[in-house]
Specification:
- The protein is 55% helix and 14% strand.
- By secondary structure, the chain is of the alpha+beta class.
- Among the domains are: 77 residues, no CATH class; 146 residues, Heat Shock Protein 90 (2-Layer Sandwich), CATH 3.30.565.
- It has a five-stranded mixed beta sheet, with helices on one face. The chain has a two-stranded antiparallel sheet with strand order 1-3.
- The N and C termini lie far apart (108 Å).
- 20% of the residues are buried.
């Protein structure tokens, strides 16, 4: 009997010792696990990355590490996007300030000049005429910035529908006629009759007008601008060609950036957002734009508009 009691106690002691050993071992493993997880989290929060993870092993630690790695990627991506948006806001504020600076300074200057009691009535009238022009420039700039902002924030909803292309081109031609006449520029239009495109009438007119306005603006006096239309299988191509100052090869893609203007175009009035708005409008209508140009030889801007809506105009007879 005594022998059985001794064996039992020995077994209990061995079991307790084994349990204590296992507990100590597991506690060390747990501490090491939590230390490594906490260290990884601290590294991620400090921007030092997630360190070396053992992704190949199917362990509890590796599962935690994979999720931490994913968390790190999301955090880094969010931080980069936040920084990008911050820089973009700073760039927009800087660009707007630059655009507003000159007309505002002119308004202040001519206001002060017009208030001079020694001015003759003729000189005062001239100041008021210049003031009116500067205020009109400010109004145009502000309206352009509002359109640009609404477009970028997706506040504008385009309503594409079948539209006679001839009507858009005629409206654009009429809008630019005064400026073209003042410079003695002829505008030639070739457009097949009965041609429809699938677009928003108002905003497509804005896009085409921006291109046509640039063509007239950068053409020499007595020059010419041609508008040619070519129906393709999916798109209708509208080419606006001028023989103006052209664009340097390295700036062909830059001219579609917001507020970008070549140094050689600085003598011509402009904001640098016309082609930017055109590209944004066309993108929302699933169209696109191409530019070909050579310095001092002219520029050709091709606008591509959908001939019909994908899948919903196939059997409605639109040309």
């Amino acid at each position: 009997m005594t022998e059985w009691i001794v064996l039992f106690l020995a077994a209990v002691f061995l079991a307790a010792a084994a349990a204590a050993g296992i507990w100590v071992y597991m506690r060390k493993r747990y501490i090491a696990f939590t230390d490594q997880v906490c260290q990884s989290i601290d590294d991620i929060l400090a921007g030092r990355g997630s360190g070396e993870f053992e992704m190949d092993e199917e362990t509890l630690l590796s599962k935690f590490q994979m999720r931490l790695k994913r968390l790190e990627e999301i955090t880094v991506s969010a931080a980069k996007e936040s920084e990008r948006q911050k820089l973009e806001v700073q760039s927009v504020v800087s660009d707007i300030s630059h655009q507003l600076k000159t007309p505002v300074a002119n308004v202040v200057l001519y206001c002060d000049t017009a208030m001079n009691p020694a001015l003759s009535q003729e000189e005062r009238d001239q100041c008021m005429k210049i003031l009116k022009g500067q205020v009109e420039k400010l109004e145009f700039l502000i309206q352009s910035l509002i359109r640009m902002s609404r477009m970028e924030q997706n506040m504008i909803r385009l309503s594409p529908e079948p539209v006679p292309l001839g009507e858009i081109l005629e409206a654009a031609g009429e809008a630019i006629a005064g400026k073209a006449k003042a410079k003695g520029i002829s505008v030639d239009l070739e457009c097949p009759e009965g041609l429809f495109v699938y677009c928003d009438w108002k905003w497509t007119l804005e896009a085409v007008l921006n291109v046509l306005d640039n063509a007239v603006k950068y053409s020499p006096e007595g020059g010419s601008v041609s508008i040619a239309v070519q129906p393709l299988e999916i798109y209708t191509k509208i080419s606006v060609k001028d023989r103006g100052i052209g664009i340097s090869p390295e700036h062909i893609t830059d001219v579609c950036r917001r507020f970008f203007r070549e140094e050689r175009a600085g003598r011509t009035e402009g904001l640098g957002i016309g082609l930017y708005l055109t590209r944004e409008i066309l993108g929302k209508e699933r169209g696109y734009m191409k530019i070909r140009s050579k310095p001092d030889e002219g520029t050709e801007v091709s606008v591509y508009l959908l001939r019909k809506s994908f899948g919903c105009m196939e059997n409605k007879g639109y040309k």
